[in-house]
Amino acid sequence: MPTSIRRLLCCLGLRDDCHQVLAHSLCLAQATGAELHVLHAVKALSDDVMTTLKANIRQRKTLEALMEQRLDQARDRLETFLDDFWESPLGKTPSREIIKARVVVEGYPAAEIIRYATRHDCDMIVMATNKRGFTASYAGKVTKGVIKRASVPVVVVPPV
Questions:
Q1: Hey, how many other C-beta atoms are within 10 angstroms of the C-beta on 54?
Q2: According to the model, what pLDDT value does residue 132 have?
Q3: Strand 35-43 with 124-128, pairing
Q4: From CA 102, how far away is CA 120, in angstroms rounded?
Q5: How high does pLDDT run on average in the chain?
Q6: In angstroms, rounded to a whole number, what is the distance separating the alpha carbons of residues 88 and 86?
């Protein structure tokens, strides 16, 4: 059992409820002195979509460029989200320097979150419930997948 929290993983789906997730992650990092890694997992394209793309875009370099462009757009969305957060009332007190890594990965989100947490020796994962309304007390599919696979504590932040 770890005696301290050295590295936190904050998982953002880039929805409105993720402002609370980031705020809680920053508070935890600040309180424990841990470094904070911010991760956004982009769901991989389905096999059908990939087959269609490969059939219609014959040049491999063009297809690879399109796939990289997709990840670049996700990185831009993450940076925009973080900029918006720092301008919001929630982002007034914490320092931006607490965030040690900003990462976008592609694949099945729950598996990618666990993979990142394992590779980077994260001591805790913080994420949203990913549910709204009456069912907000229950975790969404990605959150359930992370909870099921995680070997470290998972903090689930409900929507406000």
A1: 11
A2: 55
A3: unpaired
A4: 13
A5: 86
A6: 6
Token pair belonging to 56: 């219609």
In the prediction, which pLDDT does 135 show? 47
Q: What is the DSSP letter of 121?
A: T
DSSP, collapsed to helix, strand or coil, labels residue 127 as strand
Alpha helices of the chain — where are they, by DSSP H? Answer: 18-32, 47-56, 60-87, 109-119, 141-149
Of the pLDDT bands very low, low, confident and very high (cuts 50, 70, 90), residue 102 is: very high
Q: Sheet containing 7-11: which strands, arranged edge to edge? A: 99-107, 35-43, 7-11, 124-128, 154-157
* pLDDT tier, 60 (very low <50, low <70, confident <90, very high otherwise): confident
Structure confidence at residue 48 (pLDDT): 87
Dihedral class, residue 106 (left if φ above 0, else alpha if ψ from -120 to 50, else beta)? beta
Q: How far apart are CA 32 and CA 55, in angstroms?
A: 51
**What is the pTM assigned to this prediction?**
0.85
**What span, in angstroms and rounded, lies between the C-alpha atoms of 153 and 125?**
6
DSSP annotation of 150: -
List for the chain the helix, strand, coil content (%; round to 5). 50, 20, 30
Q: Are 113 and 124 in contact (CB under 8 A)?
A: no
Report helix, strand or coil for 136. Answer: helix
Question: Residue length, the chain?
Answer: 160
